[in-house]
Amino acid sequence: PTITNPAKNFTAPHFTTPAPLARLDTDHRSFTLMTDTNPAPTTTLPLPSPFSTSTTPLTLISQGAEALLYHTTFLRHSLPIALKYRPPKPYRHPTLDRRLTRQRILAEARILNKCCKEGVPVPAVLGVGAEEGWLAISWSGGEMVKRFLMGVKGGGGGEEGEGQGRGLVERVLRLVGGAVGRLHAAGVVHGDLTSSNMLIEWGREGGGEAKIVLIDFGLAQMGTADEERAVDLYVLERAFGSTHPELEELFAKEVLGAYGESYKGAKVALKRLEDVRMRGRKKSMIG
């Protein structure tokens, strides 16, 4: 089978609606990345075992500097997963590359497992291939927070975001703050908190209790220092200020407010956040 992107003008996909961005080579069991400017196969990336022999199509969701993210199934066809794959880096020595890949895959898996045990809303680890460089985690059908907030601002963005008012935005922001608070209470810092690395699971037909699922723990680490938590919050604050500048006041009130309610050590972390902000301003002034 062949999976191609027929659209002439390429639009970057979001996490919740997988778009066909890769062509499957059935002879070599590999994927070739496709773009609007170069629709022909140019770079072939072999798939890791056991996915190299899988009969289930893999859909490329996103490509980062270090890893590829696919949507596929695992163990059985009825179990959808997100597959994170760190392909070999040709610019690194093979021995060093294998060691770094193994360490990073295992570190991310351990952190996700710890978060699950502590009740932090994150994907569950379903499989690990440390030597091959892959990590299989549970698939979330949630909506990206970034997409939702932009949809509300523009009066669109899907059934959940379209036409919703300030009250729903406040609710989502409080969920974000609560999720980050539980993360820090578990002794974990994310390292890349943005509205793109959070999903909203609304519950059945948009009703019931909604929750935020934190994703992409490639830069996460165990951290119990208030400075580390403050920097984590600062990264999130700057990301919101850049992507959602109209929510600056609500961020301080709802996100940081809910953070303070969900994490007992928040008072010290928020005090340290003020110091981090001050250093950030000085750095911006100096250049």
UniProtKB/TrEMBL annotation:
EC number: 2.7.11.1
Catalysed conversion reaction: L-threonyl-[protein] + ATP = O-phospho-L-threonyl-[protein] + ADP + H(+); L-seryl-[protein] + ATP = O-phospho-L-seryl-[protein] + ADP + H(+)
Gene3D superfamilies: Phosphorylase Kinase, domain 1, Transferase(Phosphotransferase) domain 1
Record's GO cellular component terms: cytosol; EKC/KEOPS complex; nucleus
BP GO annotations: tRNA processing; tRNA threonylcarbamoyladenosine metabolic process
Gene Ontology MF terms: ATP binding; protein serine/threonine kinase activity
Keywords for this protein: ATP-binding, Kinase, Nucleotide-binding, Serine/threonine-protein kinase, Transferase, tRNA processing
Domain Protein kinase: start-end pairs: 55-287
Record carries keyword tRNA processing: yes
SUPFAM superfamilies assigned to the protein according to its UniProt record, in alphabetical order: Protein kinase-like (PK-like) (SSF56112)
Subunit details: Component of the EKC/KEOPS complex composed of at least BUD32, CGI121, GON7, KAE1 and PCC1; the whole complex dimerizes.
Biological function: Component of the EKC/KEOPS complex that is required for the formation of a threonylcarbamoyl group on adenosine at position 37 (t(6)A37) in tRNAs that read codons beginning with adenine. The complex is probably involved in the transfer of the threonylcarbamoyl moiety of threonylcarbamoyl-AMP (TC-AMP) to the N6 group of A37. BUD32 has ATPase activity in the context of the EKC/KEOPS complex and likely plays a supporting role to the catalytic subunit KAE1. The EKC/KEOPS complex also promotes both telomere uncapping and telomere elongation.
Similarity field: Belongs to the protein kinase superfamily. BUD32 family.
Protein name in the entry: EKC/KEOPS complex subunit BUD32
Lineage: Eukaryota, Fungi, Dikarya, Ascomycota, Pezizomycotina
